[in-house]
Amino acid sequence: MAKIDRVYEAQLARGVLSATQLEYIEWLVNPEREGSKTSFAADHGVAVKSMYNWMSDRWFNAAYEQRLAELNISPTRIQMVIDSLHNAAKNGDTKAASLYLQYVDRLSPKRVIIEDTRVSGMSDAELRTELEMLLEGHGVLED
């Protein structure tokens, strides 16, 4: 039986979804799934029409969408995509290079520049005096 997490177990306990429906969801979200819908139906003793009916059931769809969301934010899956972008970029794919660099830039710490408008009107002597007061006792500004 496919892995069933706590949310699915709760739905199963409430009788909202059957174990077969939960297994079908796991089968649907598995990108490396084997067989067809027809073979899944035969292996699990359900009619293919029932499986199509499940897809229009709101509880089934909610569980299906939730499972897709869980998988799509998986760090493992994200890293696989990033690795693919990197490899494509190394092979000369400029679009992949652009996307990879956008992703890397997103991870870089951002520097925040704070502009103090008080100092823009100060003379060099006033700035030095202000700086000396701030750094007093640190021995940073020596003549």
List keywords for this structure.
143 residues, single chain, mainly alpha, 2 domains
Describe this entry's structure for a reader:
The mean pLDDT is about 80. The protein starts with 5 loop residues before the first helix and ends in a 9-residue tail after the last helix. Helices cover about 65% and strands about 0% of the residues. It folds into two domains: about 5-70; about 75-135, no CATH class. It has helices spanning about 5-15, 20-30, 35-45, 50-55, 60-70, 75-90, 95-105, 125-135. Helix 2 (about 20-30) crosses helix 5. The protein has eight helices and no strands. With about 140 residues, it is mainly alpha-helical. The protein is elongated.
Strand content: under 5%
Biggest sheet statistics:
none
Question: Can you count the beta strands?
Answer: 0
Number of helices: 8
Radius of gyration, in angstroms, nearest whole number: 29 Å
Topology order in helix (H) and strand (E) letters:
HHHHHHHH
> What portion of residues is helical?
55-70%
- What value does the average pLDDT take? 82
Task: Find the structural class using helix and strand composition.
Answer: mainly alpha
- The 3D shape can be described as elongated
Question: Stretches where pLDDT falls below 50 for ≥5 residues?
Answer: none
Number of domains: 2
Distance between the termini: 78 Å
Task: Give a quick rundown of the structure.
With 143 residues, this protein is mainly alpha-helical. Helix content is 63%, strand content 0%. It has helices at 6-13, 19-29, 37-44, 48-54, 58-72, 75-90, 94-107, 124-134.
